[in-house]
Amino acid sequence: MRESPAIHVEEQFDDLSQQRESSSLGMWVFLATELMFFGGLFLAFAVYRFSYPKAFMEAASHLNLVAGSVNTFVLLTSSFLFSLAISAFRDGRKTRTLLLLGVTLFLGVLFLGIKGFEYYDEWRKGFLPGPAFHFQGPDYLHVQLFFVLYFITTGLHALHLFIGLGVIAVFFFLVARSWVRKDREVAIEIGGLYWHFVDFIWIFVFPLYYLLGGGR
Q: Does residue 38 surpass a pLDDT of 70?
């Protein structure tokens, strides 16, 4: 890896430390707004779950607990590997950084693949909300409400994960082009914060929808 002798600091900052802190603060503020957004969805789910416990338990029993558990392991592993990639970047180890970013990218794609399989299975069984929704029972509307919240929450999470994959792909390309300097550590660190946030949100999604409801 090549190390630049001159560390570039943007003109609005006094030094590299201030530039790093400002960039990190900006990302934390952004993530806080995203957390409030997801928090609203989690709150809505909690309110309706306690209002219609029987219907939500019944609906959750149709989720694929095995797929959700595997995806949880996949995402936690990818988050750990991204942390290792950041450490390798700081140490100037190009090959190790590329390897870790590549595996992280693969795991992220694997997560989306498994989630896509779940969506297909749920659509095939008639659980996609709308005119084609199919459920036999007195709690038809409340079961459909569960799946409305489920698809909105997991769909938005998948969108955030897809964006994160794009960020990782950019880092992979830039590192491959020897885009490695001391002043650029903050960029990959901020990327890591975003990826950890995606992981953090899933840690709430998994127990709320899969475990508390008693998925199969």
A: yes
